[in-house]
Amino acid sequence: MPHINLTPIIRSAIYICITSVGFYVIFLGVLTIPLFQNQIIYLNRVTLTWFQDVNVPEQWGFLRNQVTPFNLRTEDGETLHAWHILPLQLYGQHEEELLEEPSGLAPDIKNRLGFKLLRDDPSSLLVLYFHGAAGTLGSGWRPPSYRAMSAGEPGRIHTIAIDYRGFGESTGVPSEEGLLKDAVALAKFAMEEAGIPPSRIVLFAQSLGTAVSISLTNHMANLPEPVLFSGMVLVAPFANVEMLTATYRVAGIIPILDPIAKFPRLLAWLNTLILSKWPSKDALADFVRRCEGMDGNALKYHITVIHAEDDYDIPWSHSEQVFWHAVNASSPNGISYDELERDKEASKVMRGAGGWVVDQRTMKGVIREEIMKYGLHDRIMSYPVVSSAILRAFRDLGR
Predict the structure, then answer these.
(1) In a domain, 247, yes or no
(2) Is residue 287 part of a domain?
(3) Residue 365 counted as domain residue
(4) Range of the domain at 261
(5) How far apart are the first and last CA of the chain?
(6) CATH code assigned at 202
(7) pLDDT tens digit string along 344-387?
């Protein structure tokens, strides 16, 4: 056999390893810069609708003027791009009038028929939609998921979705504080301009949006005169950014800090440099604890957590943590994670290939966990499990 000189091969392998480590160290250094942190966490410049006009919703299969694009202002002067989506059955009842209206971005949405149908119907229901990182309100599985919002009541459930500041055509730069202001602006628009009471509003959120909606819910409940929405549906939530950094995979493939996660002290130090914390599990626990302490016997909250086992972006273990923190906060004596797991095993409703469900009902609320076997990170948003959860959030509180 010919003699093989392994020295050049070994040398090349060493060079490759050193170069890879070097690039990774540079990448970690870049992550300490706020501007680059924002792009990793929010990915707002990755619009995924580069060659599409988000003021022409018909490109995503909607009927003419079924969706009304409009702008709303935040308290700090940013302009948010939004869509108001009419439920199909209601659209059909007013199709001729809707077709006569101009299409595209509405200079004043209050003059549009769709808005009037929302505002003037005392039985109308509204979903406030908070999307995940990257893209715009027209990206990926978001348009199909808007249809899922109203599937349970196609004549009553409207949806309003926004692009956060720095996303799509919205102005500004994303931040934890800024996205909360965006969510508050949407909630105020719904309650004050559209005249929809919080008892007829459900929050839907996915991925990053779950952190935004939990922050909004906790903020509104902590006002001098608490505001409580009918319910909240959280799809693929994460516990907090610190836990997310150790598990998150970009596009479900590229682990950002997985190599560092093997060194807990180093990971903890890097997490101190992250500006956006999004402490969802703790904020949700605060909200539940506050509701449980309120006077009166009526139900105060409805929380549904949904996750797919095959979600490669955010592992479903995050939903386990979010659910546990919420349930733990609902009891004066609390419950350990292991105790809750034992209780769940005894009360789970198994659905075969459809996964399983656990309902935790307290004197003041409902906390529900639905783990699907399939659905990935985004597709699940358009599934019937979401339509059912939205409808249940409206109905369980008797509204």
Answers:
(1) yes
(2) yes
(3) yes
(4) 42-395
(5) 82
(6) 3.40.50.1820
(7) 999 999 999 999 999 999 989 999 999 999 999 999 999 999 99
Contact 272, 201 (CB under 8 A): no
Inside any domain, residue 14: no
Determine the Cα–Cα distance for residues 134 and 256; give it in Å rounded to an integer.
16
Tally of structural domains, the chain: 1
Pair of tokens at residue 234? 């959280």
Encode the chain in three state secondary structure. Answer: CCCCCCHHHHHHHHHHHHHHHHHHHHHHHHHCCHHHHHHHHHCCCCCCCCCCCCCCHHHHCCCCCCEEEEEEECCCCCEEEEEEECCHHHHHHCHHHHHHCCCCCCCCHHHCHHHHHHHHCCCCEEEEEECCCCCCCCCCCHHHHHHHHCCCCCCCEEEEEECCCCCCCCCCCCCHHHHHHHHHHHHHHHHHHCCCCHHHEEEEEECHHHHHHHHHHHHHHCCCCCCCCCEEEEECCCCCHHHHHHHCEECCCEECCHHHHCCHHHHHHHHHCCCCCCCHHHHHHHHHHHHHCCCCCCCCEEEEEEEECCCCCCCCHHHHHHHHHHHHHHCCCCCCHHHHHHHHHHHCEECHHHCEEEEEECCCEEEEEEEECCCCCCHHHHCHHHHHHHHHHHHCCCC
Tens-place pLDDT, residues 39-58? 778 989 899 999 999 999 99
> In 10 A of CB 58, how many CB atoms?
13
Distance separating alpha carbons of residues 138 and 52, to the nearest angstrom: 9
